[in-house]
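Just curious: can you write a single protein's sequence together with how it folds?
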Amino acid sequence: PNQPLFILDGFESTATVINDLDINRVASITILKDAASTAIYGSKAANGVVVVETIKPEAGELQVSYTGSLNIAIPDLSSYNLMNAAEKLEFEVLAGKYDYNDATHSYAYRQEMHALYQERLRAVREGIDTYWLAEPSRVGVNQKHSLYLSGGEGHFLFGLGGSYGGVTGVMKRSFREVLGGHIDLVYRVASFQFSNKFSVTRTALGNPVVSFREYAEANPYYAKRDEEGQVNKWLENNDHVQAPNPLWNDHLNSRDKGSSLSLNNYFTAEWTPSRAWKARARVGVAREEGDSEQFYSNEDTRYENASVLRRGEFFALDTRHTRYEGEASITHARVTERHRLNFVAGGNLFSSETLVQGYSAEGFQGGDFTYPSFANGYPEDGKPTYREAISRSVNGYFNAGYALDDRYLMDVSLRAGGSSLFGATRKYNTTWSVGLGWNIHHEKWAPARVDLLKLRASVGNPGNQSFESAQTLVTYAFQHGSANYFGLGALLDQVGNPDLKWQTTIDKNVGIDATLLDKRLSLTIDYFHKVTNPLLIRVNMPRSSGVPSYLANAGEQTSTGWTLNASCYLLRDVNNRLAWQARVNARTQSARVDKIGNQLATFNRNGRGENTTRYHDGADPNDIWAVRSAGIDPSNGKELFVDKEGNLTYDFSYDDEVVCGNTRPDLEGVIGSSLAWRGLSVSVNFRYRIGAELFNTALYQKVENIRTSDLIKNQDRRALRDRWQQPGDVVPFKDIANAVETPISSRFVQRENLLVFESFNASYEFTDGWIRRAGLGNLKFQISARDLFRASSTRAERGIDYPFARDVEAGLSFNF
């Protein structure tokens, strides 16, 4: 629901299409945030709008442009802090796993544990210290190629392009291949212009069948292979422990793969009878198809305890998504000596249809018989998946702009729309916006060295339609096995809400734009205040209803903050084509929810011990709720808590929960610099976050809360080095031998200050001399890198199921 609206060449698109778009096709990317700038998309623009325009054919002789790059992706495993073999064995001894002197256990068990410890100790002393994280990891070698041809004269222009992107993931078996093509056509005759953009993208992908998490959890004192070099199914398998070998499951013929096809066709017709008037009609059709399948061999360790006829599974899922959009508008613009007026009036129709269907099968005999026709049948009590979702909307809008002497500016918009996503009694809504501006630099008294100084303000109420369809309808689901005299039984599946209102946001913005000192210094500052009312939230239902929750309007959220963008030329010499620029971006924000009452009381109550999010009137939705901790008592290794009255106690109660932090930083943004000298360009960017807090799950799950059954997994090194062992230890974590579940407390909430070397880019472009003699328009070499290093005040695992990567890329582009 918080995803922005994506617009591609004037038509609504999806994040998947934008992600797969060839970057060399992009002419511009514009991010719209305040009410005035998002006015034309007002009924869907509450979360902002990302407008992407692709390149257009240019008149002239045939032009051929090529861009190619080679990318090296290196897995980044620096966030992991796992024990080595000796440390893990020592930890298990301190945790009491091999306590063969404990009289509460049988003599046979104590002898077994003694023998197991001696076996493990011998393995460690013989040098077995397996680094499991290296097994699934690899250096990914990736490539991208893009070719574009354009030309035409007079009435007809054309563009033809193709692209290929091959991504080899940093985890074995993972890949992604994107093959795309597009045709751009423009035809002009008299006062008419017709343009059509068609694109097709084919994507194939593969995922590892064993997650990175399973390798990280494998104990380092286990050998990967036996003495003959064979991969065993189990690292350990007895009456007490079942530790699967991730390499076994990985070497099977299991698979996880998918493919998708995206087709987009956008047609635009324009009629310009005069310089003051323009009529435009646009029609767009987009189709996305996706297929995925997963197969798990009957030899996979997950089926060890299943019956022979139910070992091995096959899953298939198909999705079909079709979008239709049509729009017509009339634009009028008039300019006089002092006045500038323009307005746009139009209407928009939009339809989206989604179909999802899938099924699963089980029971495979092994070998190459891996498709559903070789299955023994469908899962017991299982049934196929089928879901249709259809949503439609209609909008009419009017936008107008006026400027007096290019000093005083005003924009207004009004948009009336209807959507099938909302209740039968609330299908229609009206959004509006008003924007004002004052170009102070055009005043006679403005300082001479001020190139631009503009004050602006806007207010409006953009809406949000990023929700699933059919939320307002009462639906029932047939219950197989519940047949009665009248036929198959059905139970209530969803409670509809015919009075469901639109989620709209009163968006207020005040800003200033300034360019000073002969355009050496540029500054943009914005303050925003947003109130979303009503919110759409899920309210829990009584268990007796048979439905867990329903969608309702309840509460409001207020968000305030400011953004800063500044850039300065430290050096600028136009004659020698020298420019050195520094820039900084900063953002801060706060939020609170109100008018919820006790509607989310069940969610808050059920979240105790499960998560740190609570919703109360006046609370920030990004607050971290936990019981305050005074740390570990050095005398006994127990945790001391602080109750709501401020008293120290060993007794824990979730009734003492308070706000112990907030995941949103006090300040975040990007600091960068770029240097251009003749054909050379260098740019660096650093991302920073200051003052955020996080609940460190690595500490909570892999330093404490390690039960006896979890000893078959490797753990964070801090579980050994930073835990209490004897009276007098001043440490942050409790007794190693204490396997009692640790509750959520502020002890695991940490302050996070972060600095990331986000990107580096260097390029050199040849534009004349031997390039011209060779028949080329230009030739450009480029090298770039991303996520070169990361410095954080906390140590928390990231990339748990798939590792993060550092990228280095070299590229070449030219045209002729």
Observations:
- The chain has nine helices and 39 strands.
